[in-house]
Amino acid sequence: xxxxxxxxxxxxxxxxxxxxxxxxxxxxxxxxxxxxxxxxxxxxxxxxxxxxxxxxxxxxxxxxxxxxxxxxxxxxxxxxxxxxxxxxxxxxxxxxxxxxxxxxxxxxxxxxxxxxxxxxxxxxxxxxxxxxxxxxxxxxxxxxxxxxxxxxxxxxxxxxxxxxxxxxxxxxxxxxxxxxxxxxxxxxxxxxxxxxxxxxxxxxxxxxxxxxxxxxxxxxxxxxxxxxxxxxxxxxxx
Length: 238
Known about the structure:
It is built from twelve helices and no strands. The chain is mainly α and 238 residues long. The longest helix has 28 residues, at 205-232. The mean pLDDT is 88.
């Protein structure tokens, strides 16, 4: 089992993401007149990002893509770090923030979230411009940490609102509860791993494996919870 998870971690992660996106599409009609439709768009967005971002795996695995591999070799696009920094670490935070601005009712919370996201985008741009080479070859832990703060901010604002309303009595029928609970747990698990990213080396296989198992569990839990929420929740109309 251990070897299977390690050898297929990329496909398992994409499987969870595609599963959630497919269920979202199947249940789109149920939520098409609610803000939840934007969440389904986000699931599709994430699945597409993952499928495209895996181009480094495709060109190494499939012989008919050998010419593309040769073309990418030695270029800044040989690695896909830039793709995930741009469309996940930054873009993912932006789309989740957009969604919560749609579902929150407290105008102060919405305003804080807007300015926090705007500041995050500006700071991220500064980090990238100041170290363009890392944008293509490495990661920006600071961007990931700031993004985690924005996401947790979204979840906390939602929970604060729901605790002050009658929705708390029927939370298990609310899609946004499933979304907020799962992303909060995911980022609480993921953020400490960012602080220890400097220890992520090929030589330390024990830590590499531990991080892989933790991430697989967190991602699997999050997207499975998304899928369950889409199935069991009732649409919330404005």
